[in-house]
Amino acid sequence: MTIQVTRRGFFKLGAAGLATSSMAMMGFAPEAAASSIRPFKLTHTKETRNICTYCSVGCGVLIYSRGDEAKNAHQQIIHIEGDPDHPVSRGALCPKGAGLLDYVKSPSRLKFPEVREPGTNEWKRISWEEANERIARHIKADRDENFVATDSEGRTVNRWTTTGFLAASASSNEAGYLTHKFVTSLGMLAFDNQARV
Amino acid sequence: MSNPQNILRRSATTTTPPQGRHEVEPVAKLIDVSRCIGCKACQVACMEWNDVRDEVGINGGTYNNPTDLTENSWTVMRFTEHENEQGDLEWLIRKDGCMHCADPGCLTACPAPGAIVQYANGIVDFDSDKCIGCGYCVTGCPFDIPRISERDSKSYKCTLCSDRVSVGLEPACVKTCPTGCIEFGSKADMITRAEQRVTELKGRGFAEAGLYDPAGVGGTHVMYVLHHADKPDLYAGLPENPSISPFVSAWKGPAKPIMSAIIGITAFAGFMHYLTKGPKDEPLDEEVFGPEGEDAYLREHTLSAPETEPHEPGRRSDHEPR
Amino acid sequence: MTNHWVDIRNADVILVMGGNAAEAHPVGFRWVTEAKEHNNAQLMVVDPRFTRTASVADFYAPIRTGTDIAFLGGLIRYLIDTDQIQREYVLNYTDAALLVDEGFGFEDGLFDNYDAESRSYDKEHWVYQTDEDGFALRDDTLENPRCVYRLLRAHFDAYTPDMVSSICGTPVDKIMRVWETLASTATPDRTTTLLYALGWTQHSLGSQIIRTAGMVQLLLGNIGLRGGGVNALRGHSNIQGLTDLGLLSNQLTGYIAAPVDDEQDLDTFLTARRRAPLQPGQVSYWQNADAFFVSLMKAWYGDNARAHNQWCYDWLPKLDKPLYDILDTFERMSKGEIYGYFCQGFNPLAAIPNKAKVSRSLAKLRYLVSIDPLNTETAEFWRNAGEYNDVDPSEIQTEVFRLPALSFAEDEGSTVNSARWLQWHYAAASGPGEARADTHILGALFTRVRELYARDGGAFPDPILGMAWNYKQPDEPSPEELAREYNGRAISDVYLDGQLVRRMGEQLAGFGELRDDGSTASGCWIFAGSWTEAGNQMANRDNADPYGIGQTLGWAWSWPANRRILYNRASAKLDGTPWSERKSLVWWDSVQRRWTGADIPDFPVDSAPTRGQMPFIMNPEGVGKLFASQGMAEGPFPTHYEPLESPVPEGNLLFPRNDKVRYNPAARVFAQDLEMMGTWEEYPYAATTYRLTEHFHYWTKHVHLNAIVQPEQFVEIGEALGNELGIKEGDWVRVSSKRGYIRAVAVVTKRIKAITVGDRIVHQVGIPIHWGFLGLARKGFLANTLTPFVGDANTQTPEFKSFLVNVEKDTSGGRT
């Protein structure tokens, strides 16, 4: 409902506005531009159910985005608040959950694969293909060099201990399950997560 | 969206408000200080919903951040470490913000027509488009709530999320409050609720627990349950008997015909102000106001009468970081 | 959590100790305020600091950090001596009556058979006395001096109120007030809930502190009842799920312990996991380990997993030590023994103790891969940030990759909350730039590695080439495909007692359908039931609470089997009727001849009370364990030892004659790290680290709203210490440990009091974590600059909560 007006444009409206004020002085009710002091900002936004990413209370959140999923519309998240149906949180969110919008929109969000080459002092943008290729080759080179199939007593151990993996704490079960398959397939043992820190 | 028929009062306006909607039930926010953990979710939800962000400040040696209300922080937690008579520590945490007085000093003092409105449901709202930045609302407020923005010289404060309330939702701070320390409903229901809370607190040894709904401003639409209702001052200087400054009352009473002339000029100044400062990248129009701009113009023409009445000197400084 | 968030409202007494629920879990804490209002509950807080939780508590008692076993051990002694135990529960539902091996003993701070060189025990005698059938002997009079109950009382004999007070620094009257209030819930109609978090885990004795708490709850008869339990308030949103899925060096999925070197064949491996009952007729559910394991291997290796090749058992890596934990990994990294490291949503430069060591270690890597929605200090460990990160990039040869991951808001899938609820969420928008889901990142990387091995060969490619990866888009498996896989399906028709229970290809309804013959596949047995033929149970949204006690069984899905309160059969007496109406939860319906009630029974549903099966179905004893047998590194009963860095001048106040038991005798300390431990003479103040409610670990420094409400690094000291050092609020201070220093604003507070330990005044210092050299919040020091590199002897959880520092007024200019 807010109409953007330029200064020059507003000058033209100015006289009318002034007249209204003067009318008020004389005891007439001003026209109620006040009816739109604060338009409700969620009208027609899309509502998506989600779970807060921070702590393990697992509060329900409702994410509001602009764009009705038409092919040409890029969804833009504009607001996040609590899900009143959630039996634990009942619509409430703590200071972190209440600020989730600024996490989603953080200027520190990463947008592209990057590499910092040895000895340098900067990030260099690379493609996903290049990132995958280079990392996969690191994995294979290290694993081929240091994989232990049998130990000194001749026992089958099939382990690789020279590359480690710290797993996420806020990624989904599906990502975690896939991570476990990835790590186990390689025989990796230096595998830990945030459970302890 | 607010229905204009629901507006009870407008600042600097002598019109009789529409009488058709007086059956609108007043609303209230109840803040039970005994349940507040000072998590600041309400501060965050307030900024998020209202699309404002305060500055990343500094730590002044306390948990108070931001350290005071600002144009962008319409509510802040105020932490007080209090040792009671038994020597036990109490960490009193009060959510500060607009009280939405039934008899609002800000509205009474405001010279800009329609810049402050009071809805039939009790919410006192600022219409920034009409604000002239004179600061009288600050002077008129017995709770030291409104803040004038240095950026656009407009006054800002809690709206009780009038946009949410008007579409049937609760204010953002109420919804987000993790412990249920902030509740919202009809004022009658909130008073009943407060009585339940006070009874429980008395059962836990807080003999002086009570409701803060000060009569001096006609009652408020934001109320507190306090464990020590006999000593509101303990809670970071909550005034014991707030009332509108006698001077503000006076100048809007018998002095009104005289003041109206002033207001007329003020209103004009207000529009000029918008023209010059609203679209902020525009230079000040020296042709209209002369080289010192509209501030000088305002100083000259509005007489600044209420500013001679200080609003509880020194109170503001209590909230500054020490 | 044994119980769940909403159930807290059913408690009569709430003890928050080893945690700060209001600060760390404000919305879960709502149910504490509900218990106070609607159940007239008493909230008590025992903590070194008067916390946000304490601000709304009925009672607060201070304690010296790291001394919780003394406090709780004294409580156990008090409960036994005053006979304030739930006697019928203790006798029937715990191992109190079981007799312990004659070779078990404890003297002057050590259990028998300790080897000082390896810092470990020979656990041979940490077992019950058994009869010829392998069943434990018992004495129901509890008079036999070898019964667990008598040995337990003897173990804590020295933990008198005065001794506890001198160790913990808690005044005796405050100790007694807490003990008496807890003891009031020994009656069958009242319960205590214990809420704890990292304030108990992050000690060199963390696991034993939690065990002591569990023992208290068993003595009070509070496990399995509503409003009871031992409730770990987990940290991150899905750390419960990732633990359930076994993303740890010593775990497969669903708490199946990973194989070790000595377990060279499948039968040896499974025998060690089957856990035969130790009392006649008990459920001992781990007897089904074969079905869990074989189904896992069918999920992972598909058709390659066959009976004749032991279901690909050889393909699994075997452990040569108990754990490859993070401390062990960084120790090895510091020695140049690790070449590559992946950090998926993890910021070890901030999260592992002794930042200097972590930084030095990362610089020895050949490659580092950070997968994260946000920039992290770890990804930029090579960047010079002046005083905050004083490194020279040109000298660091590590190749660092930074891969952008989607955030929760752009990703679909499930997470497990602290109450074991698997909750499904949906994507609201696409991510920024070229950010990808973690599943996409790993899917694409795995398929690339697999291509390289398929094409070029290499070291033992079989488990890579043989890993089941039959996703419609192998680069990007969908959340639904993965969820259906960990739930499990029938590979061929499944029969139970000759009856067809599941047709080939159907999703399994629960772990009861798992088979050890290869006819079922399930990636995580405890998640079986989450995505059945009826669809995605994790997305259920019926919040009805028919009994009005907070049991919303139609909301999401809880493991195991949608049970919300673990061991809930213990809410009923031996005869199957509730201990009291106030606490009724599940009960035996003698007409239907089934267990029924407000929860899914955590018990065989048709096992009549007369059959004598006991509620703790995962334990071979069938009962709760006061005696840990061989499960713990430091011994079957908890013992108070000092933190590695302790403000107590010498020894252990409990064992003044034995200078070898000052700190945990089973703690693993690497030689160089031992040299980096400070003494109380140099570093006189006891320090602890914690997170603030406005923050989430190291993430929210990137979040504008959170940076606003808590912008700048500070430390908290008491007024007495402030006066002593001439420091007032807002002054800048320098806090140092043997490992480094930080500078921060001082918050000088009444909420931290000096306490008396032995005959010494001890000041405690509070150090919030969060700030670093990146983000929107003001720049600061990573707090792990100060913390010691030592962990709990069982889990290796770092001792972030108890160490020594010095505090001085900062003279270097304050804010930069």
Tell me the major beta sheet of chain C: 6 strands, mixed, barrel
How far the N terminus sits from the C terminus of chain C, by CA atoms, comes to 44 Å
Number of helices of chain A: 4
Considering DSSP H and I runs of 4 or more, what fraction of the residues of chain A is helical?
A: 25-40%
Average pLDDT of chain A works out at 85
Which pair of chains has the greatest number of interface residues, and how are they split between the two chains?
Answer: A-C, 119 and 170 residues
Query: In the CATH hierarchy, what is the class of the largest domain in chain C?
Result: Alpha Beta
The radius of gyration of chain A is: 28 Å
Distance between the termini of chain A: 49 Å
| Secondary structure: number of strands of chain A | 8
By oligomeric state, this entry counts as heterotrimer
Summarize the structure.
The complex is a heterotrimer of chains A (197), B (322) and C (816). Chain A has helices spanning 7-25, 100-104, 128-146, 173-186, and strands at 46-51, 60-66, 76-82, 114-116, 124-125, 148-150, 156-166, 188-192.
Map the helices and strands.
The complex is a heterotrimer of chains A (197), B (322) and C (816).
Chain A (H helix, E strand, L loop, with lengths): L6 H19 L20 E6 L8 E7 L9 E7 L17 H5 L9 E3 L7 E2 L2 H19 L1 E3 L5 E11 L6 H14 L1 E5 L5
Parallel strand pairs in A: 7-8
Antiparallel strand pairs in A: 1-2, 2-3, 4-5, 6-7
Chain B lengths: L6 E4 L16 E6 L8 H9 L25 E9 L5 E9 L7 H5 L6 E4 L4 E3 L9 H5 L6 E2 L6 E2 L5 H5 L5 H5 L5 E5 H17 L6 E3 L9 E5 L19 H6 L4 H22 L8 H4 L3 H10 L12 H4 L4
Parallel strand pairs in B: 2-11
Antiparallel strand pairs in B: 1-5, 2-9, 3-4, 5-6, 7-8, 10-11
Helix pairs in contact in B: 8-10
Chain C lengths: L12 E5 L3 H4 L1 H14 L2 E6 L11 E4 L5 H14 L5 H7 L12 E2 L2 E2 L2 E2 L4 E2 L26 H8 L5 H8 L3 H12 L8 E5 L1 H4 L4 H14 L10 E3 L6 H6 L21 H9 L14 H13 L24 H9 L5 E5 L3 H4 L3 H8 L4 E6 L26 E6 L8 E4 L4 E5 L12 H19 L5 H5 L12 H9 L1 E2 L3 E3 L2 E4 L17 E2 L9 E2 L2 E2 L20 E2 L27 E4 L4 E4 L73 H5 L9 E6 L13 H6 L4 E5 H7 L6 E6 L2 E10 L5 E3 L2 E3 L1 E5 L34 E7 L7
Parallel strand pairs in C: 1-2, 1-8, 2-3, 8-9, 10-11, 11-12, 24-30, 25-27
Antiparallel strand pairs in C: 4-5, 6-7, 13-14, 14-21, 15-18, 16-17, 19-20, 22-23, 24-31, 25-30, 26-27, 26-31, 28-29
Helix pairs in contact in C: 3-6, 3-9, 13-15
